[in-house]
Design a protein that fits this description.
The protein is an alpha/beta fold. It contains 13 helices and 13 strands. The structure holds pyridoxal-5'-phosphate (PLP) and zinc ion (ZN).
């Protein structure tokens, strides 16, 4: 078989339905599960124990975990150097707030300025492996930019559908990567409707969050990196800005995989996972606290944290499962709190983060105040993007000076 010749070290075995567990071939192009129309999860079956010593000779990108990644042939990897971002110690803020250990993984240092690079590098690599000619995506901004860049690198057509109110920097960057940009009045769910209409013939691969199995595999590498960079220990708590939820679900998936591989000792306790949302669009918070059965009919408003304006995430059940299993929680942050967070991170730590990252820091402060987090615990913030592209959302703050 072609897949056994020249096969990379990937131990990809099957794809399983996240809802009912039915297994499907991992060696054909798949979207959502045919049984439940829900996300498919990649499973791996190493035929012999995998030693983490392997990592020592690997490049400083997310591709260093290639045994546990889905790309089968090396020539299909479409990379711009994504991943292996630094974990910074926020010593000034820790001192100011009397915290023992405050860390921030800075995903703003990825190609195209956000952690969306991980997911799209993986999805576009797999699309290339499956002979796909072009891709389409509904996006709040960063995912579209990343898809456009990786499609350019892969020589594929790219169509990006985003809300009209998205800051210009996101739209323009897509243009420079040669993508077609379509603007829609509304939020990402309205863009998804437009994608279906534009792609009714199914000519393009729809790489919407969790509607193909591999963006999740790219994002899970954050979990592997957190463990490796902290010398196979884990923080007590991880705060993540949840939109579609791929990062939250992916990091948790990585922890489970590393337990099975024996890369995490049984004595290493898994972190409590916190989903941080924008108060303007907090479907997961509402469901988590039982105020709605699911986000199916949730109506959200725009937020300066564009990536958090996801009113009806397909991955909601998986996000809730992560929060429950990890004994974590979900918390909303207002627009003005995000601005306060941006100012505090900027002025104290020299970090100009995305509003999503600022929300995460403010969530930590609130959870310390309510004693969900103890000041003695090790806290890891995920800053998912750089603030650069959001300037337009923040200009009203600056102009008040
Ligand atoms: C997309 C995005 C998020 C949300 O990520 P999900 O995987 O959809 O939960 C958070 N922050 C930034 C900067 C983003 O671009
Ligand atoms: Zn199913």
């Amino acid at each position: 078989m072609e897949t056994t010749i020249n096969r990379l070290l990937s131990h990809l075995s099957t794809l399983t339905c996240s809802s009912c567990g039915t297994a499907y071939s991992a060696f054909e192009k798949q979207t959502v599960s045919p049984c439940c129309q829900m996300p498919l999860l990649a499973q791996y079956q190493p035929d012999e124990p995998l030693s983490k010593e392997l990592l020592k000779q690997r490049p400083g990108t997310m591709w260093r975990y290639l045994e546990m990644l889905p790309v089968l042939h090396e020539e299909n990897i479409v990379s711009l150097g994504e991943g292996y971002t630094p974990i910074l110690t926020l010593s000034n803020l820790a001192k100011k707030h009397e915290l023992k250990s405050l860390l921030l993984k800075d995903e703003g240092q990825n190609p195209t300025g956000s952690f969306k690079a991980r997911g799209l590098s993986m999805a576009i690599s797999k699309a290339k492996e499956h002979g796909v000619q072009g891709c389409i995506i509904p996006t709040a901004g960063n995912a579209g930019v990343a898809m456009a860049a990786y499609c350019a690198k892969a020589g594929m057509r790219a169509t990006v559908v985003m809300p009209r109110h998205t800051p210009k920097a996101f739209k323009e960057e897509c243009y420079w990567y040669g993508a077609e940009v379509v603007l829609v009045d509304g939020l990402i769910n309205d863009c998804a409707t437009k994608v279906k209409e534009l792609n009714s013939a199914g000519e393009l691969l729809d790489v919407s969050t969790l509607k193909e199995p591999y963006r999740l595999e790219g994002k899970k590498t954050m979990g592997y990196e957190i463990a490796e960079q902290l010398n196979w220990q884990l923080p007590d708590i991880i705060l993540y800005p949840a939109g579609g939820g791929t990062g939250l679900i992916g990091i948790w998936k990585a922890f489970k995989e590393m337990q099975q591989l024996g890369w995490l000792e049984p004595t290493v306790k898994l972190p409590r996972m916190v989903a941080v949302q924008a108060a303007n669009c907090q479907p997961l918070v509402e469901t988590f606290y039982g105020r709605q059965a699911s986000s199916q009919n949730y109506v959200g408003k725009p937020t300066i944290a564009n990536g958090l304006a996801v009113p009806r995430p397909l991955g909601e059940p998986l996000m809730l499962q992560t929060l429950h299993e990890s004994e974590g929680t979900a918390i909303p942050i207002t627009e003005s709190e995000m601005i306060a967070g941006l100012q505090e991170l900027g002025a104290n730590e020299g970090l100009f983060v995305a509003p999503e990252g600022a929300a995460v820091w403010m969530a930590a402060r609130k959870l310390i105040a309510t004693e969900f987090i103890s000041p003695d615990e090790q806290i890891l913030l995920l800053n998912t993007g750089s603030g650069q592209k959001y300037m337009e959302n923040l200009s009203h703050v600056y102009s008040q000076y």
